[in-house]
């Protein structure tokens, strides 16, 4: 599913809500476990560098940085629930100053995203950015899954929409899982910002009853999560996802299924940008050439692709004459 948006002076913006992914950045990671006898599975991730890379690219102010980092963390957690050939997109459209946040992720820990207003800097809430206020207390949360192949009902795209209730990323996603997917799920997503406004720690955990399981242990785990310090504070103090799992599942047997890196990653490229220009057709391209060079900006990573008049001429040569 693709969107195109044109601005004045030949600035062409392209974004894809569910895209392909091809190679980039850093050291964050996710751990996925299963407690089979207890009837639950869980994922815990650290995403500090991923969020910091997104903040650097989008030049976000402090509250927008925290919101985007938490949104990317949500994408990574939801990406850990889908199959290897699938993709997931999460969109918050709220009445807060952030306006909109869009995140895409796949099962391999690759994630990208953007916020509509990168300049949001609200008063701190208990010393930390007020992400809930930035998103707002009403609006819509949309989760879209590209299933890769058609399911038994003949669909290859699933979309669930619920109303935003308070703007907190994790609680909105818990609400979505309950209302739209009818799964018993606990989600904690948290960010911690240093005194200089930089992102010091971000991470998330997701605990879910296995399909077909009532999992009474979920109530115990919910109490333990409530009793734990904020997740980002634990990560900022040096704890790792493995440590958090040990603390959370103390006395409950589980198996580690997977551990892999996660990273901020975008699929945009010169070639994809050229294809986007080709899709406009000859008349539109010739109109753009009147202003000289054409700049394509990717919403997800802020990468810029500059096409000179000569480059546009080369593209026009590939199109049939009008």
Task: Summarize the structure in words.
There is one protein chain. This protein is α+β, with helices and mostly antiparallel strands. The protein has two domains: 1-16 and 268-322, CBS domain Like (Alpha-Beta Complex); 20-264, Hsp33 domain, CATH 3.55.30.10. It has ten helices and 15 strands. It has helices at 48-58, 62-79, 131-135, 169-179, 217-227, 231-236, 241-248, 270-278, 282-289, 309-317, and strands spanning 2-7, 11-16, 29-35, 40-46, 87-94, 100-106, 110-115, 139-146, 157-163, 185-193, 199-209, 255-261, 263-264, 294-298, 304-307. The strands form three sheets. A six-stranded mixed beta sheet has the order 9-8-5-6-7-13, covered by helices on one side. Strand 6 (100-106) and strand 7 (110-115) form a beta hairpin. Helix 1 crosses helix 2. It is globular and about 70 Å long.
